[in-house]
Amino acid sequence: MAAKLDPEQLADMKAAFALYDKDNDGVVTTVEFASTLAGFGVDIRGTQFEDLIVRCDADNNGSIDFDEFVNMMMVSSHSHEEDEQPRDPEEEKLMKAFAAYDENGDGFISVEEFHKALTNAGQKVTLKDVEKLVSKVDKDGDGVISFMEFALFAKK
């Protein structure tokens, strides 16, 4: 996708990518993405921005490299066209499953929400067991499972 950009557009994309890639490691993580958007005053609660990342993370490694970033920006700039297309059935299943665990609808699955859902499903797990599970899935260490983390875990 980057090859289809003229030199000025490519320079603009590189500059935009650099804004998001806080540690200059060549990839943008969900934390970097969220931090930059929050800095711009964008409301990042919920899963909308993570949904975009999941769709654009072609190699499913949980971060966005430059080519994926360009694709994401192109998709984002044509979001009205994206809304007209049906969602991938697998993505739809993931979103429904995530919503079932995200009881309060804040876009994150807390240890308590996950524990309650597992208990209601008949699983005999302690809160400590669920904390261990969440810590394995929680890539950014914030103590909750985001949609991105949930999707990456489900794809393994």
From TrEMBL:
UniProt xrefs under SUPFAM superfamilies: EF-hand
Entry GO CC: myosin II complex
Top-level taxon of origin: Eukaryota
GO molecular function: calcium ion binding
SMART domains linked to this entry: EFh
Matching InterPro entries: CALM/Myosin/TropC-like, EF-hand-dom_pair, EF_Hand_1_Ca_BS, EF_hand_dom
Pfam families according to UniProt: EF-hand_7
Protein name: Uncharacterized protein
Organism (species): Jimgerdemannia flammicorona
